[in-house]
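Known limitations

Files may contain more than one protein. Parsers should not assume a single record per file. Below, a two-record file is shown to illustrate correct handling: read the sequence, read the token line, then continue until end of file.
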Amino acid sequence: MAKLIGEFLLDLERHHRFDQYRKDPEKAMEEAGLSEHQRKVLLSNDLHRIRDEIHKEYRDAKVIVVPLFQMNVTVGGTSED
């Protein structure tokens, strides 16, 4: 199964890979196994589009997307939180 956008963004933070992503986002996304569609969504830098896509991946999650140093960072949790 392909990695979800939300998982990818969390992995960037958890594994300190923001610099790698900033230097070569295409390579970082390809190595993570993101689909072409997911890559286009992230590269759009459209926070609403990214939020909507993450919401599709995590139907029951509350999703907040905020810009951070020209990066998109996502914080989400289940509706039970």
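...continuing to the second record:
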Amino acid sequence: MWSELTPFAGPVSAVSVMGFVTWLVLKGRLIALSTHQAIVASKQEVIDSKKEEITSLREQLRKVQEQRDELMGLAHVAVAAVQAIPAAKDAVT
């Protein structure tokens, strides 16, 4: 029935498909599997290096936070000492 409605449907469809595939190849939308795998592998390498970088930065942040906590403890002692000066001055006089 379809062939009665469009007698050239078979050849036109084949030519259209070949033209579409050719257009995809020329535009870079249709690539070989090996090319795709190479692209995926390079992207995975980038992802892995970024994960390592993130891990390194997190370790650096942890060290900075430990230093900050230590310095804050010392600062609290210094503030307490400075605030105690007027009270000690009044006690001496």
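Parsers that stop after the first record will miss the second one. For reference, the second record is described as follows. The CA atoms of residues 34 and 48 lie 21 Å apart.
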